[in-house]
Amino acid sequence: AQRGSSACQIEQCNGSELTASVPQTPGEYELTEMTSIPDRSDQENERPDMVVLDCRANAKGQREEDALLENASQSNESDDTSTDQSPVPPAPLKETSFSIGLQVLFPFLLAGFGTVAAGMVLDIVQHWTVFTEVTEVFILVPALLGLKGNLEMTLASRLSTAANIGQMDTAKDMWKMIMGNLALIQVQATVVGFLASIAAVIFGWIPEGNFKMGHAVLLCASSVATAFIASLLLGLIMIGVIIASRKVGINPDNVATPIAASLGDLITLALLAGISTGLYKELEFNDYANPMVCAFFVALTPIWVLIARRTPSTREVLYSGWEPVIIAMAISSVGGLILDKTVSNPNFAGMAVFTPVINGVGGNLVAVQASRISTYLHMNALPIAEPNPAPRKCPTPWSTFFGSGVNARSARVLFLLVAPGHLVFLYTINSMQGGHTTLTSVFIAFYLAAALLQVVILLYLADWMVNWMWHRGMDPDNFSIPYLTALGDLLGTGFLALCFHILWLIGDRDTDVGD
C-alpha cells in the first residue's frame, strides 16, 4: 500500500516534477516507469481500494496520453515503411522547382487554351442580339465565369487536401466526400447565380435609370440555369481528375485547379450565350418560360441541401461558407460592370477576346498557389484557431518570392510561367484571326505588363491571405480561392481596360481587325 501511494503521488505531478522525482529510490523508479497499473493487479491485491482506483485512473490517463504521442510520432515519421498503415507522403515538402513546373505546365497550357477558346466565343457572341439588346448580360460574364473559382476550384482544393491527408483512401469515404461536395456546389451555384442576376440588374439599372421586368427575369433565368448546369459538369470533371491524379502519383494540387478552368470558362460562356439567346427569343411568344426556369432550379435546392448535410465537412461549409462566395460574386460583378462599359464602346470591342484569357491565367495560377499553401498547412498540422492569436508579421514580397521554403519556390515557378504562357496564347489568338486588335509590339508590351502586375499582386495576396485565414480558424480551402479569383477578375479586367484606353490615347486604334 505504501508503494502504491508513492506511485500515485508521483503520477499526479506534472511532467517536469515527475522527471525530477524519478531518481530518488529504485522502488519508486520501477513504479513510475509503469504505464499499465491494472495489468499488475495480482501483485497489488493488498492495496487499499481507493488507492487502486486512483492509480487506475491515473494509469488510464497516462495510456491515453502515450497513445496520442505515439500517433503524433507515427504521423511525423510517415517515411517509415515498416508500419502496416499506408503513409501519406508529404509531397509538397519534397518537390523541386523543376518537378513543380513540370506538373503545372501541361494543365496550365491546357487551361490557357480553354480561356483562349472562351475569349474567341465571347468575341463572337458580343455581337449577338441578346448581348446588344440586354447589355447587362456582360455583367454576368465575370460573375458566372468566376464560379469556377468560387465553387469548382474550391471543390478541387478541398478534395485535393482530403486526398493528400488520406481522407479519400477507402471507397466509402471517397463516395461520401464526392456526393456531399457535389450537392454543396449545386446549392451554392443556384444561390450565386440568382444573386449575380440581381447584381447585374442593379448595376445596369443605376447608371441608366431604366428597368425592364422582362429583361430582369431573363437575366435571372439565364444566370441560374447556366450556373447550375456548368457547376454540375465541372464538378464531375474535377472529381475524375483528382481520383486519376492520385492513382498515377501526381499531386492533385498542381493539376486539379488549372484543369477546372481549362473547360470552365468555355463551358460556362457557351451555356450562357446559348441559354440567354433561347430565352430571349421566348420573350416574344411566352411570358412564362423564364419564370418557370427560375422556379424549377430553385425548387431543387432543398434536395441538394439535405444531401450536403450528411457529410460533416460539407455541412460546415453549407452553414458558414457563404460569405466568401457571395462577396467574390460581388467583386466579379464590379469587373463585369467594367467589361460592360468598355466592350459596349465600339472603340474597345477588341478587349472582349483577351478578357477571359488574362482573368483565367491569373486565377488559375493563384488558385494553384493557394491550394498548395493550404495543403502545406494541413499536412504539417500547424496550430489552427488559437483563442487569442499572436499578431503575425505581414509577409514581405521578398519572403513570398525569394524565400527558401517550398511555397516561395512554387511562387517563383508560377510567376515565370506568366510571360511565356501569355505569348503562346496571344499567338494562338492571332493565328486564328480572333479579336479586333493587331498584335503590335506596343500592345504586347502593355498587355504583358498588365498580366505580370496582376499575377504578382495575386501571389502576394495568396501568401498573406491563406496564412491569415488559417491562424484565425478559417479553412483556406473554403475561403481563400473565391476571394483571390474574384480579385483576379477585377484586376485583370481593370488593367486590360486601362491598357486599351492608353493605347487609344497614344494612337493605336485599329479596331477594324477581325470584323
Structure description:
By secondary structure, the chain is mainly α. It has a domain at 128-344: Tetracycline Repressor, domain 2, CATH 1.10.357. It is 75% helix and 0% strand. The protein is built from 23 helices and no strands. The protein has helices spanning 2-11, 15-21, 26-33, 49-76, 91-94, 97-125, 129-133, 137-145, 147-164, 171-208, 213-247, 252-262, 264-282, 289-299, 301-308, 312-320, 322-343, 355-379, 397-402, 406-416, 418-431, 441-470, 476-505. Helix 17 runs parallel beside helix 23 and helix 22 packs antiparallel against helix 23. It starts with a helix and ends in a 10-residue tail after the last helix.
Q: What is the tally of beta strands?
A: 0
**Could you give a short account of the major beta sheet?**
none
CATH topology of the domain at 128-344: Tetracycline Repressor, domain 2
Mean pLDDT: 77
At CATH level 2, the architecture of the domain at 128-344 is Orthogonal Bundle
Distance between the termini: 99 Å
Rg, rounded, reads: 29 Å
Number of helices: 23
Percent range for helical residues? over 70%
Shape: globular
Spans of at least 5 consecutive residues whose pLDDT stays below 50 are: 3-93, 511-515
Listing every helix as H and every strand as E from the N terminus to the C terminus, the arrangement reads HHHHHHHHHHHHHHHHHHHHHHH
- Which structural class best describes the helix and strand composition? mainly alpha
β-strand percent reads under 5%
Q: Mind telling me the CATH class of the domain at 128-344?
A: Mainly Alpha
